[in-house]
Amino acid sequence: MSVTQLDRRHLFGAPVRKKILDEVRAYLQTAGPIGKLVSISIGGSAEVSVYIRNQARLAAELGIKFDQQCWDSNISQDTCKARIQDMNDSSGVLGVILQRPLPEHINVRSLQSAIHPLKDVEGMNPASIGNIVYSDIALVPCTAAASIEMIKATKLNLEGLEVVMIGHSEIVGRPVAMMLMAEGATVTVCHHMTRSVAMHSRRADVVLVAVGSPHLVGAEMIKPGAAVIDIGINQIRNDDGTTKVVGDVDTAAVTEVAGWVTPVPGGVGPVTVAILMRNAVVAHQRQQKNGWL
Amino acid sequence: MAANIIDGKAFAAKVRAKIATNVSTLKMEHGVVPGLAVVLVGEDPASQVYVRSKGKQTIEVGMNSVEHKLHENTSEDILLALIDDLNKDDAVHGILVQLPLPKQLNEALVINRIAPEKDVDGFHIANVGLLGTGQKSMVPCTPLGCLLMLRDYHGTLSGKSAVVVGRSNIVGKPMAQLLLNDSCTVTIAHSRTKELQEVVKQADIVVAAVGRPEMLTGEWIKPGATVIDVGINRVDAADGKTKLVGDVDYESCAKVAGAITPVPGGVGPMTIACLLANTVTACCRINNIPEFEGFSS
Known about the structure:
The structure holds 2 protein chains of 2 kinds.
Chain A: H1 3-8, H2 14-31, E1 36-42, H3 46-62, E2 65-71, H4 77-89, E3 93-98, H5 108-114, H6 126-133, H7 142-153, E4 162-166, H8 173-182, E5 186-190, H9 197-201, E6 206-209, E7 227-230, E8 234-237, E9 243-246, H10 251-255, E10 260-261, H11 268-289
Parallel strand pairs in A: 1-2, 1-3, 4-5, 4-6, 6-7, 7-10
Antiparallel strand pairs in A: 8-9
Helix pairs in contact in A: 2-11, 3-11, 7-8, 7-11
Chain B: E1 4-5, H1 8-30, E2 35-41, H2 45-60, E3 64-70, H3 76-88, E4 94-97, H4 107-111, H5 125-132, H6 141-154, E5 161-165, H7 172-181, E6 185-189, H8 196-201, E7 205-208, E8 226-229, E9 233-236, E10 242-245, H9 250-256, E11 259-260, H10 268-286
Parallel strand pairs in B: 1-11, 2-3, 2-4, 5-6, 5-7, 7-8, 8-11
Antiparallel strand pairs in B: 9-10
Helix pairs in contact in B: 1-10, 2-10, 6-7, 6-10
């Protein structure tokens, strides 16, 4: 098979991202300033800062104020909570982003719960997840929502679609399963205790994978023509000592079998930040609807 | 070979006996008595039966039972004010608002007014989200009952392939979350699922909660699988009377399955037992007392 034919099977994030951002821009044009996003990092680490830079750059491009706060690594849980509660009360704050990882003495879940559900632009508050389970899809975890946008880009009809989600993390696997189910798909969630992942994945019209294991999904696990959404991001070392980023899918092999496969990098990743900005818009709409603004 | 019958009635009695022991431990060692408040609005006859039976079983295990019966035309403000009072009442550890509510009342608003730690039905949006992310939460009673029966029968569920048929908020969705938490490979099938029969046939564990009388027949079941029937449907019987059947065709499935719950006498009795279990769990959590083992996810 020629290279161009294979390339055509690659499902890139850029057009999906562009479409989402066009919608965000259109909204901002009519709505005017929508307040600021506050990014909280505690202690600070290089790993996180790439993400924050991407978020800050995109917010700047869109004209959304992005307040990058870096709190001292020794800050107490109570102080964090009090500061977040102030942000909940402040009408100038549109949304709050809690950058992970956090120092060990900080209870992440308790801080996520402290962010008001209407300002929870990362979709991490239990109430936000609860709404997803109840099929009220508003503020959604960004990576999960980005993965679903990638499936939609294939134009496959989600209703009745057989989907296998490999990985059952609270940030990706579980919300993806719930959101796809709400759209009428039949979802199977596999994970490290699943006896034969291949037995399930070979039946599926769509396979998503988010486990953090390079090349976990090979061609033999995929039904011919299926869509494969690779959510993994792994840094691996080349023979010459340099490093590169790969997903959880053996992309070269799977491309021979699949109908679509998202590359890493350049697949789901670029869409994730766009979803964060779309969440900012959704938060603004919901806050207005609730008479906050 | 005939399937083992999972006797929900007997198992529920065992669970209640254990709860009674736990309740007396709480009294003697901690000086607290778990209290359950049930709120009933209107005169729905089925709801009245449920509420009576809940109250009776609550008292039987040694807990306090409070019933609030409100008029059919009760306004939202009055109901919300009652819930606020119960939220503040230290003697009340569990609050249950009997559903369905009369039309003038917004169910979601009312349920989400209950303090999440006292939400023994597990329907508060925060509890739904906590369960959905594998965190400690209050768990809806019917799926919790199914889980306890499955654990009792199998020991560990880890690695088993489970199919939940039906995606309701009350049963299907929380059931799937619970099975995931116990490390099953979980498929949620529903009315839009293509080749439903084939999907069900792969499962080691089938939980049927669709509300369609005797929809799953023996051909749907993998030999040796465990079948949990959550359905309760009243259908016409041959003698002109009516009878209760599940979502599973018991006779044909029992010939293929390894184990099966009957209807009635399977999942049904476990639901109230789990309501009592949830009230004890809530009481422990509220009072910072270590929880008793085996009654939560």
